[in-house]
Amino acid sequence: MYPFYRYTKSIVKAVVAQKKGDTVDFTDTAEMQFRCSLTDIDNFFEMNNGRVFTLYDLGRTDFAVRSGLGQALLKHRWGLVVAGSTIQYRKRIRAFDLVTIKTRIAAVDERWIYVEQSMWVKGKPCSSALLRTGVTKGGRVIETQKVLDAMGRSNWSLPPTGYVAEWIESDSHRPWPPQN
């Protein structure tokens, strides 16, 4: 089940933080913390890999609220979508571990905002994800320039480089729909 209570709590915390001046810029890395609960673990008593992706939603939402993107979404009646992702797991997260999610914008192109996220326990990285995200209007992804204009960031750019550009290139060769 989706963690609606935890999601709502994280939004409230982000709104309060933003009102207190704890904001993030598009160039910043936002951090938030939570405890791995019993509803997050699998039969091996570690965080379920599917739950990791669900909890990364909380980090992206925190970033959106504290960066002002959340206000632009509400004002323009925009939505958010994840259109692709890749993840690496390196260390187990156990029940009751204090987890820090780090979220940052890794790149922006004409259509997509590439978000890098990671989970950390006791200063050690546990997982890292790269997501292709977009802002939507009426079910369609809108140009990122329109989003940047609405945020007062018309001249801001962060073109894909390094592993982000390599992932975009590699993913463009993947057949869609998948072949049997």
TrEMBL record:
Pfam family, one: 4HBT_2
Cited CDD domains: 4HBT
Top-rank lineage group of the source organism: Bacteria
Listed PANTHER family: PROTEIN THEM6 (PTHR12475:SF4), PTHR12475
Name this polypeptide is given: Thioesterase superfamily protein
Organism: Psychrobacter pasteurii
